[in-house]
Specification:
Strand order of the largest sheet of chain B: 3-5-1-13-10-11-12
Pfam families (chain A): CO_deh_flav_C (PF03450), FAD_binding_5 (PF00941)
CATH superfamily of the largest domain in chain B: Aldehyde oxidase/xanthine dehydrogenase, molybdopterin binding domain
Number of strands of chain B: 25
Number of strands of chain A: 12
Largest sheet of chain B: 7 strands, mixed
Number of helices of chain B: 17
Order of helices and strands of chain A: EHEHEEEHHHHHHEEHEEEEEHHH
Keywords (chain A): Oxidoreductase
CATH class of one domain in chain A: Alpha Beta
Largest interface: A-B, 33 and 36 residues
Number of domains of chain B: 3
Radius of gyration of chain B: 26 Å
Protein name (chain B): Oxidoreductase
Distance between the termini of chain A: 57 Å
CATH architecture of the largest domain in chain B: 2-Layer Sandwich
CATH architecture of one domain in chain A: 2-Layer Sandwich
Structural class of chain A: alpha+beta
Distance between the termini of chain B: 80 Å
GO molecular function (chain A): FAD binding; oxidoreductase activity
Strand content of chain A: 15-25%
Radius of gyration of chain A: 20 Å
Protein name (chain A): Oxidoreductase molybdopterin binding subunit
Oligomer: heterodimer
CATH topology of the largest domain in chain B: Aldehyde Oxidoreductase, domain 4
Shape of chain B: globular
């Protein structure tokens, strides 16, 4: 393997200085994705800046009733945190639906946001891939794509974003905080991930060299009744073929508020705003839920071998919203 | 020391933990890639990135300048090999193992060079930097059941068996099933990847390897390198799984070549992605099954035709149609295995070759016939129990399939089953149950063993058996203890070393049966020689055995292991998720030597059946000709969460006419398991799934017009 330089960052300014905007340097946190990519040759960094020991491992309430989550909080600690479980159950469920216990013990919040697609063409350096080698082509469009995007895909790239956590964060309007040499910045999750477009190699709006320091979750009373359901090709330890993060507030048989996001259907976590508009104010019935799912999925453009994702997401949306309604009725 | 202490308690039949279990769980047991050697060189294989073509050039010069690089071997520089021979199993070598002999590339992932360096990291970096220029030729990997170039092929059994008038019997049948079933490309993927270290010492070649038969690999290497077999020693003490993939492969041959050229020890290990190309695999199959039956379910016609795929450079036939030759008779009975040559790696033996995919098709078709006839699926099978071999006409050694079904049905609660499909719901899940029959041949092959009475009162057994995780070392300890009439604690079994002489491989479910015959023969004779109170000399007293003549004298019968598989599944029709809720397998598999490890083998096979039914599938990209997602993240096997309560047990299966009464148990556990699950999915949903794996997308779109 290629030799690389390993540095452990003492603090956030030190991490930024060690990375020094070098395009061949990478921050290393849990390493659960980056190290795999280094083994397969997709990533060949000359320097790793280890940020795992930075003091960014706290989950704290914010004055407005939300939560601030440090970038190096492990996935396990995030899912186990009592305030996350109480206020944002959808987030705890999404994290627990991903990976394995061992991986969640290593993986961090910041790293989870930045994990790369598991498209098999992206991870195989012998193949063309516009995300890995811009302009080389996308073999998935005509090749094996039964778990590729049906929403928002471009002709350049049909890969899906792999994170479960980020789907819940999309539904919760999370804000990503980062630090650069020029000072701090923040990005709402909806703007954090860039559409694939013609530049699928540019995945986020983070400035070059920026270090994610944490997330904030705004207060979201609707999330007290929320759920994440993930469908995959085995019961555990597999990426989603479709997932739904949903929160629902039903009073007097009417949907007062709703949050809905889809996973494994697009190059980024897919906030289903069209469906939310159908839901809010409508009677809390299976018919409404089907209408909402149908409205969102009207934009779906399946490839020859992933058309099943449209009925899958339709059924899953109706099922999860109906389950939440059933909970509310109890 | 005298030989007075003997025990009357039998060791065979009571559960014993693995004799090497502590070594394995503490890490003391060394696997092939762990054994240290001084001056070790590390080889890294470079595989082709084109699916068909010729090597134009390999730019080894710059790579030889890289840090630590010792050598680059390719078709221009490697030692010449002999490939025109027939090996121990009666088959010719797979040319994939005869590396670097020509410039032709017959499939993606063909070994084109070996880079050797002082560290594995240097070897890998150099191998990945090696520029190989190809002349690319068009490739063809398009496999389907209608290929006109598919032709009948024998492989390990005759291609075709045929009796009666199929058309007439089908026409005269009250009920006919005529369906196509498919199974995908599947891979062995033992936990321990293939690894071998080769070194020369005093004119003798020694290879530390992970394989299914040390004597087998010696024979292959001696033939390939034109060596006297007596000057080659292969050791394979601990093996982390094989499943048919661990014979002679490219890595041992490349290691021997490099050790020969460099005159120092060289290790070559396969990576997980490389195993997709170089470790063999199970071919996909397309199978057509036609069954015709009278109104009462008696079979008039049985036609099973299976097409599989092999490489252009080597022919291996996955004989899916073979299982019907044992299981069911009919007035007209036709079975046929065909194969088509495509630009893909060589398939090979993989756990229950033939029976595993074949039983999926045949046992699914039986379930469909039961539905058409309105007969319980178990009744239908029992009504068609043959009196003699349907094709061979030979008598059966005890065939206790009926007892398996009766005991299984009782314990599974089959009598309470409502036969109607699609009527049981629990929340979002539809529930169903299914069953299928299983069988696998119980063969044996010649083996040798040596048993020594040591001066300290202990006994040592030496045989070139292989314990590939099955518990064979422990089983042979128990067998030897009983044959000697002593407690197992006084017996040490040494295996996995070709220096112990010739022995059958751990394969074909024949290992323990074959080795036990040799161990019992030697131990029995030793016991007779040892008089009570007799003094044992310092070098001990050794008796050797060879079972060749004994096996040749055995009467030809249809001898098989049998099983009845039961599964309960839950299917969410909204998402296509299928979950197995419980499985039960009842087997008739001869004398069970060690119930503890036997249960592990049976349940392990059944769990593999879950993977086969729901998960396993290697997809090839038609444009590139290679697998997509060639790692264990892309190639799914069942996780713990997919494995419910799986129970395995057995019925009495005594054969007084057999010298050991032991049958193989390594493969029968997977046979029929996928069919039982698929039949349960039908019972849950009312929809038949004739293509494996039963993925969520297939469940979602099955039976819909979309």
């Amino acid at each position: 393997m290629k030799e690389f330089d390993y540095r452990r960052a003492p603090d956030v300014p030190g991490a930024l200085a060690l990375l020094d905007d070098r395009p061949d340097a990478r921050y290393l946190a849990g390493g659960t994705n980056l190290v795999d990519l280094m083994k397969s040759g997709v990533e060949r960094p000359a320097r790793l800046v280890d940020v795992r020991e930075l003091p960014l491992d706290r989950v704290e309430p914010t004055p407005d009733g939300g939560l601030r989550i440090g970038a190096t909080v492990t996935n396990s600690d995030l899912a186990a945190h009592p305030e996350v479980r109480r206020r944002y159950p959808v987030l705890a469920q999404a994290v627990l639906a991903g990976a394995s216990g061992q991986l969640r013990n290593m993986a961090t919040v910041g790293g989870n946001l930045l994990q790369r697609t598991r498209c098999a063409y992206f991870t195989d350096t012998a193949k063309p891939c516009n995300k890995r080698a811009p302009g080389s082509g996308c073999p998935a469009v005509t090749g094996e794509h039964h778990n590729h995007a049906v929403l928002g895909a471009s002709r350049s790239c049909v890969a899906v974003h792999p994170s479960d956590m980020a789907v819940a964060l999309a539904a919760l309007d999370a804000v990503v905080h980062y630090e650069t040499a020029d000072g701090p910045g923040e990005l709402p999750l909806g703007w954090f991930y860039l559409p694939a477009g013609d530049t699928p190699h540019r995945e986020t709006a983070l400035p070059a060299g920026a270090l994610i320091t944490g997330l904030t979750l705004p207060p979201a009373p609707v999330a007290a009744r929320s759920r994440y359901r993930k469908v995959r090709e085995r019961a555990s330890y597999a990426f989603a073929i479709g997932s739904v993060a949903a929160a629902l507030d039903v009073r007097d048989g009417v949907v007062r508020d709703a949050r809905l996001a889809f996973g494994a259907v697009a190059s980024r976590p897919w906030r289903a705003r069209t469906a939310e508009r159908v839901l809010i104010g409508a009677p809390a019935t299976a018919r409404t839920y089907a209408d909402a799912a149908g409205a969102e999925l009207a934009a779906a453009r399946p490839l020859p071998h992933n058309g099943y994702k449209v009925p899958l997401m339709h059924n899953l949306t109706v099922a999860v919203l109906s389950e939440l309604t059933g909970e509310a009725a109890r | 020391m005298t030989t007075a202490q003997r025990t009357a308690v039998r060791a065979v039949g009571t559960g014993h933990v693995r004799v090497e279990g502590r070594d394995k769980v503490t890490g003391a047991a060394r696997y092939a890639g762990d054994v240290p050697f001084a001056e070790l060189g590390y080889g890294w294989l470079v595989l082709s990135t084109v699916a068909r073509g010729r090597i134009r050039d390999i730019a080894s010069g710059p790579v030889l300048e890289m840090p630590g690089v010792l050598a680059v071997l390719d078709h221009r520089s490697a030692p010449r090999l002999e490939t025109d021979y027939v090996g121990l199993l009666g088959i010719r070598p797979d040319p994939t193992c005869a590396v670097f002999q020509h410039d032709t590339v017959p499939h993606l992932g063909w070994p084109v060079a070996l880079v050797v360096a002082q560290t594995p990291e240097q070897a890998r970096e150099a191998a990945e930097s090696l520029a190989v220029e190809y002349e690319t030729l068009p490739h063809d990997i398009a496999f389907d059941g209608d290929r006109p170039d598919a032709r009948p092929a024998d492989g390990i059994m005759p291609a075709v068996t045929d009796k009666g008038d199929l058309a007439a019997e089908l026409a005269a049948s009250a009920h006919v099933v005529d369906e196509e079933y498919t199974t995908p490309e599947e891979h062995h993927h033992p936990m321990e990847p293939h690894a071998a270290t080769a070194r020369w010492e005093d004119g003798r070649l020694e290879v530390v390897d992970s394989n299914q038969g040390a004597a087998w690999v010696v024979g292959e290497l001696a033939n390939l390198f034109r060596l006297d077999p007596g000057s080659v020693r292969v050791r394979s003490e601990h093996v982390g799984g094989g499943f048919g993939s661990k014979g002679v492969r490219a890595h041992q041959v490349a290691a021997v070549m490099a050790a020969t050229v460099l005159r120092r020890p060289v290790r070559v290990a396969l990576t997980r992605p490389q195993m997709f190309a170089l470790a063999g695999h199970r071919s996909p199959t397309v199978q057509r099954v036609r069954l015709g039956a009278d109104a009462d379910g008696r079979l008039r016609a049985l036609d099973h035709r299976s097409v599989s795929r092999t490489g252009t450079h080597y022919e291996f036939v996955e004989p899916g149609a073979g299982v019907a030759r044992v299981m069911y008779d009919a007035d007209a009975h036709h079975t046929e295995n065909r194969v088509v040559r495509l630009d893909v790696p060589s398939p090979t033996f993989m756990r229950a070759p033939g029976e595993a995919p074949g039983a999926f098709a045949l046992e699914s078709a039986l379930d469909e016939l039961a539905e058409k006839c309105g007969i319980d699926p178990i009744d239908l099978r029992l009504r068609n129990e043959p009196a003699t071999g349907p094709v061979s006409g030979l008598p059966f050694a005890p065939r206790n399939l009926r007892a398996c079904f009766e005991e299984g049905a009782r314990r599974f609660g089959w009598a309470r089953r409502d036969p109607r499909p699609g009527v049981r719901r629990e929340g979002r899940w539809l529930l169903g149950t299914g069953t299928a029959a299983a069988s696998f041949p119980a063969g044996a092959a010649p083996s040798t063993a040596a048993v020594t009475a040591e001066a300290d009162g202990r006994f040592t057994v030496r045989t070139a058996a292989a314990d590939i995780g099955t518990g064979a070392r422990t089983a042979l300890t128990l067998v030897a203890a009983d044959a000697l009439g002593v407690a197992p604690e006084r017996v040490t079994v040494r295996i996995g070393d070709s220096a112990f002489g010739f022995a059958m491989i751990a394969g074909g479910s024949m290992g323990t049966r074959s080795w036990s015959m040799a161990v019992m023969a030697a131990a029995g004779e030793l016991r007779e020689r040892l008089a009570p109170g007799m003094d044992i000399p310092a070098e001990g007293i050794t008796v050797r055995s060879d079972t060749t003549a004994r096996l040749a004298a055995l009467t030809a019968v249809e001898r098989h292991s049998y099983g009845a598989q039961f599964a309960e599944v839950a299917v969410d029709p909204a998402t296509g998720e299928v979950r197995v809720r419980r499985m039960l397998g009842i087997f008739a598999a001869g004398r069970i030597v060690n119930p503890l490890t036997a249960r592990g083998q049976f349940t392990g096979g059944m769990i593999w059946g879950i993977s086969m039914a729901l998960h396993e599938e290697a997809l090839r990209d038609p444009a590139f000709g290679g697998p997509v997602g060639a790692d264990l993240a892309g190639y799914h096997v069942a996780t713990h969460a997919d494995v419910p309560r799986v129970e395995a047990d057995w019925v009495d299966d005594t054969d007084p006419d057999d010298p050991v009464g032991i049958k193989g148990i390594g493969e029968v556990g997977i046979v029929g398991a996928a069919a039982a699950i698929a039949n349960a999915v039908w019972h849950a949903t009312g929809v038949r799934h004739r293509s494996l794996p039963i993925r969520p997308d297939r469940v979602l779109t099955a039976g819909s017009d979309a």
